[in-house]
Amino acid sequence: AQSVTQLGSHVSVSEGALVLLRCNYSSSVPPYLFWYVQYPNQGLQLLLKYTSAATLVKGINGFEAEFKKSETSFHLTKPSAHMSDAAEYFCAVRESSASKIIFGSGTRLSIRP
Amino acid sequence: DTGVSQNPRHKITKRGQNVTFRCDPISEHNRLYWYRQTLGQGPEFLTYFQNEAQLEKSRLLSDRFSAERPKGSFSTLEIQRTEQGDSAMYLCASSPRILRQGFREGTEAFFGQGTRLTVV
Fold first, then answer.
1. Lower Cβ count inside 10 Å, N or C end of chain B?
2. How far apart are CA A52 and CA A42, in angstroms?
3. How many contacts, defined by CB atoms under 8 Å, are there between A and B?
4. What would the DSSP string read from start to end of B2-59?
5. In the predicted model, what is the mean pLDDT of residues B97-118?
6. Confidence tier at A97 by pLDDT (50, 70, 90)
7. What is the pLDDT of residue B106?
8. Is the CB of B48 less than 8 angstroms away from the CB of A106?
9. A29-43, pLDDT tens digit by residue?
């Protein structure tokens, strides 16, 4: 069965610092992996997705993530945090043969001035 | 393409009442999903449609919950005899047809703004 674990329910970084949000997945087949962002009282917006084309995936707003099969990880990074990055971030997995997308419990990112 | 539309955005209801939410997916998306999200949690899968067929239901979807997608276009989610534990954000998402032969694009789901339900 597919599952996602996000390490750290809350991450706080200073403006301009590196952002690292951790995600580990479990899947019996090569997965599709996603990072979504959610602002308060809003739906989810796709940041980036992994579909086996390239292990380093670039997304919107300067975010990127690297798929590491040996570590079953798909961590999200951004070199320099901006105040507007403060939001909830969700890692998600979808098995290639299944239909539903399974989400992690989320990581709340706070940015200190 | 106007995105996934959900109505209403907010709903306050008294315990025991029935409520119905509507989702209009992105046109030509044949897959439609309902999720429930409580405060501080990730979205939990409820059910999934491919065209008009409901292909999967979570055990979270009790007998009080029913979803339909007539004609494979918009969908409705009805909750009967609401309970305080039903208070949550209900999210709808749609996804385009996944092409075969190894073409892996179009795999993500596009979400609506959600309907926030408060049961008092």
1. N
2. 29
3. 61
4. ---EEE-SEEEE-TT--EEEEEEPPTT--EEEEEEE-TTS--EEEEEEETTEEEEE-T
5. 75
6. low
7. 55
8. no
9. 778 899 999 998 788
